[in-house]
Specification:
Elements lengths: L16 H19 L4 H14 L3 E2 L11 E6 L3 E6 L10 E6 L4 E12 L2 E9 L12 E8 L5 E6 L9 E2 L8 H5 L13 E4 L9 H13 L9 E7 L4 E3 L5 E4 L2 H16 L7 E6 L16 H12 L7 H7 L2 E4 L3 E2 L21 E4 L3 E2 L10 H13 L4 E3 L9 E2 L3 H5 L4 E6 L1 E2 L7 E4 H15 L8
Parallel strand pairs: 1-2, 4-14, 4-15, 15-21, 16-22, 17-19
Antiparallel strand pairs: 2-3, 3-14, 5-6, 5-11, 6-10, 7-8, 7-11, 9-10, 12-13, 13-23, 17-21, 18-20
The structure holds manganese (II) ion (2 copies).
Length: 463
């Protein structure tokens, strides 16, 4: 008989030395992925590279598909759908796991360069839910592209190499911050003061620091000021992902929401062998700003990918896509809130996740009365529990914070609306959305095992 009381135990307690080494090795590869994937474009590129190295092919190059084929669709260099085709019909349902590869950051405005108080600066517009004060007085890097009208695409990546300069956003010295101290913390730094310092030497001829910087940019990248109109330049923390703690059990890094789930998902889809059921991985963009646009989860691009699978397996009859969706199961692989020892009062501790206690399931998200939630059916929760318990995967079930304190959402509801069974399942994070988010190596590995076991499961849910 199972224990009558639900004993929640730390994952580290039940593993031996060799399992610990496996977890640490997995984390080392994850750290490399993080350091080379600071934007959705970079994550996309690394994901496509790994898929190619593991026998996946561009779906546009395939005329027909059969069991065992591995394909992907690269959506505009920003989101990816990948599939391992199974023996069973797609219309009998597929197993889907979906993560996102965009993270909160600062974007440059279309007219970013200006000069003020004898310094040159870039204007920014923040992307996603940030606490603005966290982005001042830290080293920042610039990543992205400038595209010229003749289609030439210039890659920018500056601030990561030890020999690169970095950039920073200033803040008031405490000596003169009396007025700032009186403001509410959310108002102490406003969006229009998130300006990046980029130079201070004036042009010898006309005394303009801005012009001197534009000349330097022209020499280095061959761009002129108007080229910023067609650029996507993202400001991200210049720190590297690092082991955290004397015991090295945790990872501190920018962008773990949601690249931690994206990485675990990537490793699981490449390790799936051909099953009866088809496995599908989604790496989506724009989750942090509502999943809109043609690289976000709301886009018809995913339907287009699924229709291509139906076409190329010769299954595409009227209504086939709906049938696939209504018979499918999905894990929405996104991060949750780990209990922060310094701020425990925002969490209801009996319904919260602790880092190191395994992959986290959120039956529902939403806020204030489950508003906006996709609430997974108990039958589906039981189905997922069974997979994890059968495979001895330690997991925890929690909510995001106390009732009425706030809340959040993921891509879960977008796919649940199409008719499939969906539940949120990911890694708990401390300091989520900050420039330096904290996760446990145990949970990251636990997510990988959970995703792999989910892909390899193929039973009917009984309603
Ligand atoms: Mn997320
Ligand atoms: Mn987020």
């Amino acid at each position: 008989m199972k224990d009558i009381i639900n004993k929640k135990e730390c994952g580290w307690k039940s593993i031996d030395e060799s399992k610990k080494n496996e977890i640490f090795a997995f984390a080392d590869s994850y750290i490399k992925f993080l350091n080379s994937s600071k934007t959705e474009r970079e994550a996309n590129r690394n994901i496509i590279k790994t898929l190619n190295e593991n026998g996946f092919q561009d779906i546009n190059e395939m005329t027909s598909l059969k069991a065992g084929d591995k394909v992907y669709l690269n959506n505009r260099g920003k989101s990816v759908f990948a599939a391992v085709i199974g023996h069973q019909k797609l219309t009998d349902g597929v197993n889907i796991i979906g993560a996102h590869i965009d993270s909160p950051r600062l974007d440059l405005k279309p007219n970013p360069v200006y000069e003020d108080a004898h310094l040159a600066l870039f204007k920014t517009h923040y992307y996603g839910g940030i606490k603005k004060y966290q982005w001042t007085t830290i080293p920042l890097a610039i990543h992205g592209v400038v595209v010229k009208p003749d289609k030439e695409k210039i890659e920018v990546n500056i601030g990561e190499d030890d020999n690169d300069p970095i950039f920073t956003i200033t803040d008031i010295l405490p000596h003169l911050a009396q007025k700032q101290y009186e403001k509410k913390i959310g108002e102490a730094i406003n969006g229009e003061s998130l300006n990046l310092i980029i130079g201070s030497i004036p042009d010898k001829e006309n005394d303009s620091v801005k012009e001197n910087i534009l000349k330097l940019l022209n020499q280095k990248y061959g761009i002129v000021e108007v080229d910023f109109y067609s650029s996507e330049l993202e400001i991200v923390p210049a720190f590297k992902a690092r082991d955290l703690g004397f015991d090295r059990s945790m990872i501190a890094s920018y962008g773990q929401d949601d690249r931690v789930c994206a990485y675990s998902l990537l490793e699981s889809i490449i390790s799936v062998h051909t099953m009866d059921i088809t496995s599908i991985a989604i790496f989506s963009d724009k989750e942090e700003i509502g999943s809109y646009g043609n690289t976000g989860m709301y886009s018809e691009m995913f339907d287009q990918f699924m229709n291509q699978l139906l076409d190329k397996t010769d299954e595409n009859i009227v209504g086939a896509l709906n049938k696939v969706y209504c018979h499918s199961k999905m894990l929405s692989a996104d991060v949750g809130c780990g209990v922060d020892p310094n701020y425990q009062d925002v969490s209801e501790l009996n319904n919260s996740s602790y880092i190191g206690y395994g992959v986290e399931i959120n039956k529902y998200t939403g806020s204030r009365g489950k508003s906006g939630a996709s609430d997974a059916n108990a039958e589906f929760v039981a189905y997922v529990r069974n997979i994890f318990e059968k495979n001895s995967i330690i997991y925890q079930v929690s909510e995001l914070g106390k009732v009425d304190i706030g809340g959040g959402g993921t891509i879960a509801y977008i796919l649940a609306n199409k008719g499939m069974d969906v539940i949120d399942c990911g890694v708990p994070v401390i300091s989520m959305h900050s420039p330096y988010e904290v996760t446990s190596k145990y949970d990251i590995y636990s997510a990988y095992l959970a995703y792999k076991a989910f892909f390899e499961s193929n039973e009917k849910i009984t309603y």
